[in-house]
Amino acid sequence: MLRALPLLIAALLMLMTPAWADPAEAPPEPITELPHPVADLTIKVVGLGEEVGKRLVDLLPQWDGQAPKDPNFVKEAEQSAQRSLEALGEGARPITAKLEEIGSRWVLILAAGEPTEGQTTSERRRPVRDAMQREVKEGGLELKVEGVRGNLARNLRAHLSPLPKTAAERASFLFTLEDKAEEAMQALGYYQAVFNTKVERTDPNWILTLTVDRGEPMRYDEVIVLLEGDARNDPAFTDRINRIDIQPGDIVHHGKYETLKSDLQTLGLVRGYFDGSMAQHRIEVDRDANKANLVLLYDSGRRYRLGEVNFWSSELKPSLLQEMVPFTPGTPYHADQVARLTSTLLGSGYFQDVKVLPHPEQAVDGIVPIEAGLSPPPRHSIDLGVGYATDTEARISTTWRTPVVNRHGHSQETKAELSKINPKLSFDYRIPFDHPINDKLVFNASVGREEYGDIESSQYQTSFGRRTVMGNRWTRTLSARFLYEDWVQGPQDHSAKYLMPGISFSRTHRRGPPLDPTDGLRQFYLLEHADTVWGSDQRITRFRSQLRAVYTPVERHRLTARADIGINVIQDEDLLELAPSLRFFAGGDQSIRGFSYQSLGPKITVDDGEGGTTELLVGGRYLLVGSVEYQYYLTPSWRLAAFLDGGNAFDTNDSDAIDFEASFGGGIHWISPVGPIKIEVGYGFTDPDASPMLHISIGAEL
């Protein structure tokens, strides 16, 4: 190939030579291409005879192996070449130097120009030199690739990029064109490719048409991939070897070869083979037979094991910290275990920042010590918030948090919410039990007021429970809740107290961003019971279920669905005396849009105190509400929505007697940094007096 390079370039430049340069009378001057003592450095001399070019190279300095990487190398090479020409009696010629990197090789191009004015040298015409060295208007080069398409064309363009933008860059580009093109074709297995070039010297950019005859592709005759060391018995490596997508008969593809090498080395590091290396890695090419053999031998050495975790900069008890380590010392090393430790520590809320560093270089007998640097959070933090939703109207909130109350890992959160509809003050205190994150004792106290239909109620409650994250990622809560509630229902005041032991299960699975997941399912189930035996005013068993689902079948198209189910098992005569917060209502942003907040449910007729009667919305024994919604993403941050909601709260078991309500509508959502902000309009088409209702809400579906 290198022998043919001067002839190919000469032929190319003859095409660019103007009419006044007759190639038949003046044959093109050869380009001298010679190796240099520096490894992987080739020198090309243009514009001088072969004999002069060889003598010039002989006079150049013996540069060391790092010379081409020196930013001053090109300038020094140009000056050295100019001095050498003067020594050869050719000092009248100016020398221009250009350095090109082709694969792993360096190419130094030395182009000799015309003698300066007033001085002479050989009068023989040299069209190759003249075509390249004569002054032209500054301009670049446009490239057209013909004969190949798809990956071959894209790879050619990638190897030939960036295209030259000036005449000087263009000259250098043309000298190295074939080398780069061959490298691009060989990377995809085409070692027999033949190139033809045509140059149109337009103004200001020349147009280069590169026509490629790709020839027959080179195929693998043998593919040999072997393992040595502990990796031979590692199922992960066995699985990767079984999934090799390179087989005998396949076209040689250097990208797949490099990917396989990288996969084996990366897998080794992930799984703790820190001494692993590629003992052999090569593609053996037989150009004559147009065949190749792939040989890879990965020597993993031994597999290291996880050691003790050394924590520093934390006031928590050492035993509490060790309980957060998700692995047992001596476990075979895996990077996922280290990442899991990092996420566990960050998710605990005890630290502002976490840095977990394994130190294989300090391993003793294959045991890798782990270091965990912990940055404590602020002792106290206060967050202020302002928001609005049509259900609750304007809201102002403040939250006071103490993430680490003491060295035992206690934490507290106090939150005050001021709203016209449901103001509330709550206090939570958490104590690690069997595990500092997955098993906690939780104490809660709250006082608040809320409007339920036509009832205004005040609640005072405390609860104590144990919240446990189980191995299947379900969260189980065992609790006992005390509720005292007073309310006004018509002209009468009411109050009731309840002591309700209960159990709940919840689980959330999602994929994608937490604030805007692509797929997921959230489930919540609650069962609690109050009885007069232990001091409650009424005997009641309650069941509550909430389901939320998100599904993205294709890009930009998203479906969501939700279902709310509630059941109160209570005597009929006790139903009207049941506290409003234990009854069920429907309507609102998170229920049936097109109807106002908690405006749907059973009603009763009461004396209005003026000799007449009036209807009061008092809520129901049962709840059944469902919704489906289609969303289309205009951009990653904006989407349109169309929905259908339906259901109601009711007292009867007779489905024919249930007054089902339904609505449809649409809106636009903005995926803000704090969650989707939704502006929607719903229309309750089952209500003869309905009118479109605006709904504004914020929050993710899961």
What does this structure look like?
The chain has 702 residues and is of the alpha+beta class. The strands form six sheets. It has a 16-stranded antiparallel sheet, with no helix packed on it. Strand 12 and strand 13 (367-375) form a beta hairpin. It is elongated and about 125 Å long. The protein starts with a helix and ends with a strand.
Measured distance between first and last alpha carbons: 63 Å
Extract low-pLDDT stretches. 1-34, 118-137
Number of strands: 31
Strand order of the largest sheet: 14-15-16-17-18-19-20-21-22-23-24-27-28-29-30-31
Counting DSSP H or I runs of 4 or more residues, the number of helices is 10
Major beta-sheet overview: 16 strands, antiparallel
Secondary-structure-based class equals alpha+beta
Overall shape: it is: elongated
- Rg on CA atoms, Å: 40 Å
- What's the helical proportion of residues? 10-25%
What is the averaged pLDDT score? 86
Task: Report the portion of residues in β strands.
Answer: 35-45%
